[in-house]
Amino acid sequence: MRTKNVKPFTYGSLYKQDLPHDKIIPLVTGNLIDFTIAGPYQNTRPDIASNSITVHNSGVYQITADVSVILEEEQTVMFNINRRHDGSDPLIGSTFDANGISTSTGINVQAYLYAGDTIGIFIADTYAPRGRLPRYNRASLTLHLIGF
Q1: 49, 69, 112, 114: most buried by Cβ count inside 10 Å?
Q2: Cα–Cα distances in Å, from 31 out to 78, 86, 126?
Q3: Which pLDDT tens digit goes with each residue over 13-72?
Q4: Are 48 and 38 in contact, with CB atoms under 8 Å apart?
């Protein structure tokens, strides 16, 4: 059996579950989504302290981000998958939003990541005309290397 073209698996995941002891978290512009569980991983480092996943291999990754948002009338929120905690390096095509009602929202993108890149779900903008911030109760961030 030839093993010359066999590639090592590379994947990682982070989750925030809606469990009875978990709390509903306000969405504050300029922050990353807060995760509570590091899921399965290989050749990556999911980190709940930094709310991000660091990749150890360069290549093209399939990245999926999902957030269950709790909105009130006229509220909106915008997210992106970002390489930096300050929001200054969003992945191309990774912006997604929610508006008007409670909803699950997310995006699936492919992007080239370099070894050492760290990604998270960045809260790019919120709009809350009555003062109470939008909130969320579940989230996930997963990635899988699909090519070198």
Answers
A1: 69
A2: 12, 8, 11
A3: 999 987 666 678 999 999 999 999 999 999 999 999 999 999 999 999 999 999 999 998
A4: yes
Q: Evaluate whether 65 touches 30 at the Cβ level (below 8 Å).
A: no
Residue 54, burial from CB neighbour count under 10 angstroms (0-12, 13-18, 19+): middle
Token digits for 58?
A: 């360069």
Q: Which residues, in sequence order, are CB contacts of 112 under 8 Å at separation 6+?
A: 58, 59, 60, 61
User: What residues have CB less than 8 Å from 63, skipping those under 6 apart?
Assistant: 81, 91, 94, 108, 109, 110, 111, 119, 141, 142, 143
Q: 32 is written with which tokens?
A: 């990353």
Q: Is the pLDDT of residue 2 over 80?
A: no
The 10s digit of each residue's pLDDT in 44-57 is 999 999 999 999 99
Nearest residue to 96 (alpha-carbon basis) of 117, 81, 83: 81
Alpha-carbon Rg for the chain, nearest whole angstrom, is: 16
